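Sample 3 of the quickstart, ligand 2'-deoxy-thymidine-beta-L-rhamnose:
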Amino acid sequence: MLLDRSRATSLAIFCKVVDNYGDIGICWRLARQFHEEHGIEVTLWVDDLHSFRRICPDVALNVDLQRVDHVEVRYWRDQDGQFAPCDVADIVIEFFACDIPPGYISAMAQCEPRPVWLNLEGLSAEEWVEGCHTLPSMHPRLPLTKYFFFPGFTAKTGGLLHESSLEEAREQFQSDQAGMAAFLARFGLTPAETASLKVSLFCYPHAPVPLLLDAWQGGDAAITCLVPEGVASDAIQAFLGEEARPGAARKRGALTVRVLPFVAQPDYDRLLWSCDLNFVRGEDSFVRAQWAERPFVWHIYPQDENLHHVKLGAFLRRYATGVESLSVFSRVWNGMAPDGAAVDPDWNGLWTELHADMPTMLRRAKDWKQEVLANGDLVSNLLNFARLRGSEAG
Ligand code: TRH
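Result:
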C-alpha cells in the first residue's frame, strides 16, 4: 500500500543535547505541540535523559522506550543498523543538524514515497536566514532531499514555537493576583518580596552578575531577584554568604536574592509571567520571555569568534527600536562595548536608564508579540511545508 505523505500522521524528531537544556527544551515543546494540536504520532529520539528530566520530571532515566504526555520517547544511543522502512516516520526532523543514524537514513531511502526530511536550524534574526529557509539539499548518494527549516521573526521564515492555548493561560494567570502570589509563595517569597520589583535571572556563567547585584543593592527600588539553582552560582553564593541551594535567600540594601529550584517547563513559564523583568538566555527561554509580555534582557549563547555578537545586534535592531537603554544594556550584559570601544561600564547608570524605560519596554513587548505572531507558529508552518512537499513527492 502506498503511503500518502501529504497527510503525514507520524513524525520523528532526533535531538542531540549539545549543552544545557535548550536542545531538549525546544524538541520537547515541538513533540508535544505536534501531537496535541495536530494529532501526529511523535517519536522523540534523545541522547540525554538527564537533561530531559530537569525540564520534565516525568521522564525516567535509563529507559530505552517510554511514553510521556502521549509522545514516544526513545533513548538514542547506539541503535544504528536496526531500522527498516516501516520504522520511518512520514516527517523526519533532525534538530540543529545533528547526524541521524545512517541506518535510519538508509531505511528512509527505501521508503516509497520517501519521508519529508528537515533540518531544523537555530533561531537567528539575521537577514540571510530568509534566503536559506526551506532550501533543499540533495543527499550525495541516496535518492533523498533534506530541507533546511529556519525559525525566525519574519514572514519569510518558519516563525516561532507558540502553543495555541498559551495566550489564554498567560492572561488568566497574570490577571489573578492572588493565584500569582500563591505561586510565588511556593518558592518562599514573602508578601514584601512579592510586592517589590521581581526579576528572574537566567544567564550563562560569564554574565557580569556581581556588578549588576551591586547596582541593585545600592539602588532606591526594592528588588527581589529570583535565581534558579545552578545559575550564576559563584556570584549568588558570594552575595548570600552561603551555598546557593534552593530556598536560600538574603537581603542586602535594596536587594533580596532568592534561589529557586529548577522547575518543570510549565512552571518556568509561570515564573516569567510573574516577574516584572526577566533575564533569559539561549534560545528557548529567550522565546518564552517574548510570550510573557514582560520586559526582558537576553544573554545569548556564546559562539566562537564572537559570532553571537552579530546575532545579538541583528535581534536588537529588530526588537529594541525606540528603547535605546535596552540596546545599550543588552550589549554590555553580553560583553559587547556599545560602539566597539572598550568600556568600564557604569552599572548604576545602565540600570537607572533601563529601569526608567521599563514602561516603554512593556509596550514594546506587547507590540512585538503581535508582530511576530502574525507569521504563524513554527509547528503549523513546518507541518504545512512538510505536507506540501509530501504531496509533490507522492
Ligand atoms: O539551557 P540553555 O542554555 O540552552 C542552550 C541554548 O538553547 C542554545 O541555543 C543551544 O545551542 C544550547 O543550549 C545547546 O538555554 P535555553 O535555550 O533557554 O533553554 C533552557 C530550557 O530550560 C528552556 O526550555 C526552559 C527550561 N527551564 C526549565 O524548564 N526550568 C527552569 O527552572 C529553567 C531555569 C529553565
